[in-house]
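Incident log, support desk, overnight shift.

02:14 A customer reports that sequence design results differ from what the structure should imply. Their input is reproduced verbatim below. On-call engineer (initials T.W.) acknowledged and began investigating.
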């Protein structure tokens, strides 16, 4: 099942994409994809619907992020060994975790906004997953049963703010429109093995990142088990799982985003995003 939200920013409707690619209105079934509603029970109820009974949205227009906002938005750093090398650090021995502000989320094709004062805005294609069942101290063998579904995330990053000051990476990961999500949330049974998905990202038509989730240092099941030893994961929480090599910071010389650039990125089975890069006006 592919779930989505369509409409103008702040006024999206929950929707289902049927087998023919038609966008079907779910607003008669659920108010919106609010984090506390994103349970496996909701997923099962929606899966039992006959899609042909739902109204078609003929001109869906903009796609929003597939959930209204994350509860907690956790990110994993340096989860591909070759990306750790390009970042100039040793691959971590346990997962590196940080947060992204939930307010950084935007739609998959919304503009990426370079914040005022930024010199080093960078891109990162990532597999993100949505939690659908409370997870606390779960074993790896049970971990994937807590996943609602998967989506594409561009973990946009301001490298100076992330790395050159003091404190935590959240500083460089959280500006408005720094987390395009979607276009669709694909439920776990339709994705199958999350560790066999190709990922790619282009800037201005040039391929910058190519990778596969098969080379993650800590796969999804291990991440859920690890994080759940430290905190409770709840329905509506999102975890984005790290990026393969090819970010601007890793180039020699380094390359960062500038107004007018176009980013395209995608992951097998999860669709594509396309963003125009603009400068913040305030
Ligand atoms: Zn990242």
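02:41 Re-run completed on a clean worker. Output:
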């Amino acid at each position: 099942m592919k779930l989505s939200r369509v409409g103008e920013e702040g006024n999206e409707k929950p929707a289902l994409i049927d087998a023919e690619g038609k966008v079907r209105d779910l607003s008669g079934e659920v108010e919106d994809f609010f984090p506390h509603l994103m349970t496996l029970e909701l997923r099962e109820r929606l899966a039992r619907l006959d899609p042909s009974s739902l109204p078609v949205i003929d001109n869906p227009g903009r796609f929003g992020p597939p959930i209204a906002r994350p509860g907690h938005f956790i990110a994993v750093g340096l989860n591909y060994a070759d990306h750790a090398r390009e970042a100039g650090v040793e691959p971590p021995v346990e997962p590196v975790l940080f947060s992204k502000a939930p307010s950084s989320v935007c739609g998959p094709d919304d503009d990426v906004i370079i914040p005022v004062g930024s010199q080093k805005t960078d891109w990162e294609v990532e597999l993100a997953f949505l939690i659908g069942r409370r997870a606390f101290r779960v074993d790896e063998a049970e971990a994937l049963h807590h996943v609602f579904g998967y989506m594409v995330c561009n973990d946009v990053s301001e490298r100076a703010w992330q790395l050159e000051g003091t404190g935590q990476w959240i500083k460089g990961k959280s500006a408005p429109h720094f987390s395009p999500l979607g276009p669709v949330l694909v439920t776990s049974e339709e994705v199958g093995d999350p560790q066999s998905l190709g990922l790619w990202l282009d800037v201005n038509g040039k391929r910058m990142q190519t990778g596969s989730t098969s080379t993650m240092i800590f796969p999804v099941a291990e991440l859920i088990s690890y994080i759940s030893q430290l905190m409770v994961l709840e329905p509506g929480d999102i975890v984005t799982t790290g990026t393969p090599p090819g970010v601007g910071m890793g180039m020699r010389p380094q390359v960062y985003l500038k107004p007018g650039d176009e980013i395209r990125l995608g992951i097998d089975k999860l669709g594509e995003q396309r963003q125009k890069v603009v400068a913040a006006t305030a």
